[in-house]
Amino acid sequence: MIPNLNLVPFVSVDHMMKLVLHIGVERFLTELSAYVEEDFRRWESFDKTPRVASHSAEGVIELMPTSDGRTYGFKYVNGHPKNTREGRQTVTAFGVLADVGNGYPVLMTEMTILTALRTAATSAVAAKHLAPKDASCMAIIGNGAQAEFQAMAFKALLGIRKLRLYDIDPAATQKCVRNLRDQGFEIAACGSTEEAVEGAQIITTVTADKQYATILTDNMVGAGVHINAVGGDCPGKTELHRDILLRSDIFVEYPPQTRIEGEIQQLAPDHPVTELWTVMTGQAVGRRDARQITLFDSVGFATEDFSALRYVRDKVAGTGFYENLDMLADPDEPRDLFGMILRAAKPAPVGEAA
Question: Can you provide one Gene Ontology molecular function annotated for this UniProt record (predicted)?
Fold first, then answer.
């Protein structure tokens, strides 16, 4: 049977949650990570551009498009830190995957949950190439909506079992402890950033405030640490003291975007950085020795969303975890769109259902 191409599979928030639970969180993150790494390894085949951002005093709204020449994908995403004070999410998102050959969408999905999963998966993929090989303990500074996903991804891909948590809001840390209590971690709720980083081989910073901040100071970071800097993701927003950057080997997704939005906006425009895809393909070295400080200056890039959209499309095929949306006009005669509207007004013939 020829499929009805004007019906687009749509994965709702409810379907996404059920899909994640059906697959299992760790398996989902592991499989998604494989898609993310696969697309980094074919980095040169993608159209690449910094995300299109509309900034305001309250936050930012962004579009993140890319294509590999066969499939096109984009994500709509916002970042509004003040939203939590109003009972709303800081970050929300949805995404679309489309066939380049005909332009028809082939998937539409929520991406609030999916972005949290893909961000964590990307962090863990980077750490797999950059973190100390014997790492067992991670500090997470900022215990909001992303924290648990980071912990689960690092457990799934790197075997992290010890967590040291800190947030300026103790309730956020307690929420995180509660959610991860039965997930196989040894968890310490800490009273300061300094306490949290003690003994950690990996430090993840994932705070939300839209400002220049110093979450980590230079004296907190010892030799051999891997820093997973997730929270700095727009102009005027950073988490690390500049001196940490000067001591670190810095790895990024897409330099033209990261120099605008990442931690390296604090540095000279020509400060050397290494693109993550070159490490994955063997064209550059990641971790060289036990004393090296590696820094993944993560801002999130469109190929990662593309990977997530591909993964979800593959996983929902043949399942009940989506519904079809009638969102593309499909007249019998492609040139007669107006006639299609007129015919919709005609009553059904006698004896036929309306």
Answer: ornithine cyclodeaminase activity
Regarding whether 293 and 314 lie in a shared domain, the answer is no
Amino acid at 304: E
User: Which residues touch 229 (CB under 8 Å, ≥6 apart)?
Assistant: 205, 239, 240, 262, 263, 295, 296, 297, 298
Which of residues 300, 325, 344 is at a domain's end? Answer: 300
On whether both 275 and 189 belong to a single domain, the answer is: yes
pTM: 0.92
205-229 burial: b if 16+ Cβ within 10 Å, else e: bbbbebeebebbeeebbeebbbbbb
Instruction: Residue 35: give its domain's CATH number.
Output: 3.30.1780.10
Q: Which domain holds residue 173?
A: 131-300
Any domain includes 354: no
CA 251, CA 236: separation in Å to the nearest integer?
20
CA dist 131 to 84, 128, 209, 255, Å? 32, 6, 26, 21
Structure tokens at 281: 């393909």
Provide the number of structural domains found in the chain.
2
- 275: pLDDT strictly greater than 90: yes
Q: Are strands 137-141 and 162-166 parallel, antiparallel or unpaired?
A: parallel
Task: Count the helix, strand and coil residues of the chain and give each as a percent rounded to the nearest 5.
Answer: 35, 25, 40
pLDDT in tens, 70-98: 999 999 999 888 898 899 988 899 999 99
Active site residues: 233
Token readout for 274 is 């290494």
Nearest to 155 by CA among 28, 314, 311, 298: 28
Give pLDDT tens digits for 307-335: 999 999 999 999 999 999 999 988 888 89
Identify whether the C-beta of residue 165 lies closer than 8 Å to the C-beta of residue 203.
no
